[in-house]
Amino acid sequence: MKVFSSLRTHLLTLWALLLASAGATGYLLTEFYAQSAAVQVAQAEVEVARSCREIGDRFAFFTAGWSGGATEIDDTLKGQLTDVVVTALAGHPGVEGGIWTAAAGSAAYAFPTYEGTGPKTDLPLAEIDTIRRINAETLGGERPVATRRISRTQTLVLQGCPLRGPIHGATAWTMTRVHTDEGRAYGQLLAGFGFLAATVLGSALILGRLLWVLGRRIARLEGQLGRETPEGDLPRLAPTGLRELDRLVEALNAAGLRLGTARQRAAEAERLAALGQLTAGIAHEIRNPLAAIRLKAENALASPDPARPRAALDLVLAQVARLDRLTRDLLSLTQPRTPVLAPVDLAAVLEESAHLHDDLARERGVRIVVAEVPERRVRLDEAQVRRALDNLVLNALQHSPADGTVRLSAHLGNGRVRIRVADRGPGVAAALRERLFDPFVTGRPDGTGLGLAIVREIARAHGGRVHLAAPPPASPSPDAPDPGATFEIDLPLVDQPAIDPPDTDPPETAP
Fold this sequence. Notes:
The structure is a single chain. With 511 residues, this protein is of the alpha+beta class. It is built from eleven helices and twelve strands. The chain has a five-stranded antiparallel beta sheet, sandwiched between helices. A five-stranded mixed beta sheet has the order 7-9-10-12-11. A two-stranded antiparallel ribbon has the order 6-8. A hairpin with a 2-residue loop joins strand 9 and strand 10. Helix 1 packs across helix 2 and helix 9 packs antiparallel against helix 11. It is rod-shaped, with a radius of gyration of 55 Å. Residues 474-480 and 496-511 have low confidence and may be disordered.
């Protein structure tokens, strides 16, 4: 599944699952606490009901033997009734209560287990309305009545029960408070939530730091791998400090060493293959003029005509000149000089190169045009660039038809200079495109195949390249001009600020 193809996605998913688990656990803790609080409230209801019955039993014992009904409750009777309530509630911790009459209201109140600094004798004013209401309901229904009032921090439990005796309209009531924010269950809830908060926060911090550290380490590795090396090998990666990533770094460094060794072997094999090809080409190119020299010399020696030696010597000199040109080209190809860079007027170089070949161009009926050259000096080896241009212009003239045009141009942009030589000849055959810049590869019977190879070495010496631009699509019209060939020398601008506008020419691809 592509959704889980990223380590970051895995970690984020783990974090989400951890949060979901924490939420579920918190919910279960809350439910457990709620159930525990409900149990406490139920136990409190049992306790106040029992204590209310206890007041009723004590009241019945106190009034046993009374004759008639008491109509007035004086202070003496209130004191006696208070003693009854104290005796009844003494064995019920946390329960307060009293005796209520319909006529006089509170007849007795006691909270014998109050944990204050002294005995509590005043009715709780905050609950007086609730006490009055429950006693009225008890008296009206002549049965026990229970109620509860829930607030944020506590639950108030009240019980009213009718009293049988000589006091008309008397009822007993008891009350207790269940503090839901105290006790063992509440402490366990707080401890559970504290542990959950600590683990979730700690896990989030650990996962966040892991994501941050992994992101930085991986970004550093990407930056190191993205650096270009002189030989195009894998760069040497520095350790990241993470054991797992460092194992990957060690494996990549080892693979880079193996790749470098393989590249060296491949380069050596390529060099030997090129050397063999070069040797075969040299032997072929030298054998032809030597054979012509030998044949002419033998014919001159065998002929009685005194003019034959003169003609033979002329041919020998022509073939020697051919061998000399071949030798000079081979030396240029095999011993390239390091470019000596200096500011060069590119427009002047192209104009002079075109002017140098004016005679040959007029002889072949071809026009040389210099166009689109920026007025700017660039740092190049002028002598080597001139030689590369000479080879490209000669190649273009030799392939141009009569009334054709050879166009020279240059463009600056993106920190590079591109010099182009284009002709409108028949173009380059598809069979030659792959090996066009190899030594001794040529499409002309009288060519040596070294000109383009020399241009390639000059471009490489400058840190650039030369390539054949993609030909335009063939036209279906038989009268359409030949597609021609465009060679481009692409060189970096050395010590030049890249402030020129980008090259707007359509992209060209090498074969």
